[in-house]
Amino acid sequence: MTADTTESPGGLARRYGRFVGCGLLMGAADVVPGVSGGTIALVLGIYQRLIQAIRSAAKTLLTFAKADLRGASAGFKSLDFGFFVPLGIGIVVAVGSLAGAIETQLHDNPEEMAGLFFGLIGASIVVSLRLISRPTAAHYALMAAVGTVLFVVLGYQSGPVSDPTAIILVGSGALAVCAMILPGISGSFILLMIGMYSTVIGAVSDRDFADIVFVGLGAAIGLALFSSALGWVMDRHGDLVTAAMIGLMLGSLRVLWPWPNGVGVISERHADVIDGTGLSWPASGDLPAPLILAVVAFGAVIGLAKASETLAAREHS
Q1: Is the pTM of this model over 0.70?
Q2: Per the domain annotation, does 3 fall within a domain?
Q3: 209-240 in b/e burial notation, b at 16+ Cβ within 10 A?
Q4: What is the number of domains present in the chain?
């Protein structure tokens, strides 16, 4: 999609500035498990354009992989760079700016951060339930089955992955980036679920470019291979996919239970290991801070969802 050549420089600057701002908000959401960049894109009214841009880029990459240089060149020229580039700049700046603060808080205040994430995921479950157009007993059974299986499996997880191989980093990036086209499902949540959140957030914070490159490569592969497929499945079996995703979020709450140790943390900079899969009840003095943060996070996500619904209603009125 090419830019309108009749648009004034001031209009272009405002439009690109808006996309950078959208990227900043999406990047900030993707750093924190629970709120997805796709949800933010819905709220900001750019979701359909984002999906179309991702699918076009994926199609161009696949055309190039088939050695169809002429088709790839034509596809490349038609890409929506006026949207992609400023949005990407905003996302990169937000992730780079917030990663260090998030990693520090995970290490210094694991119970409080677990409470915050617990509230985010809990509200995301409530919001995602409303995305199922016609919920049936089969949908609820699928949620329960997926949630139960994941809850049990996570009980055998000894903690976050401490020394991932290049293959694991690439695979993590591929899985996490799929959340971009699934509103309500956070890429950071997927990383947290597979024990890679602390590793990836630490790599960004510490500027570990080798790990960042492998995760980025995985993200590119994931977009190229999965975006069209996931879009096709969501178009035809959206309610079942959403039910399965809700089950994943339900099961993941085991990892986010704040007690005894909150969210698991492993990093090269901090030579400690905290197992985030244990379950216990808090002492009375340990309850208020995580609980308050969980309630605040829950309210923030619900408010974001309400804003999304209001914006969608205005666009269709």
Answers
A1: no
A2: no
A3: eebbebbeebbbbbbbbbbbebbeebeeeebe
A4: 1
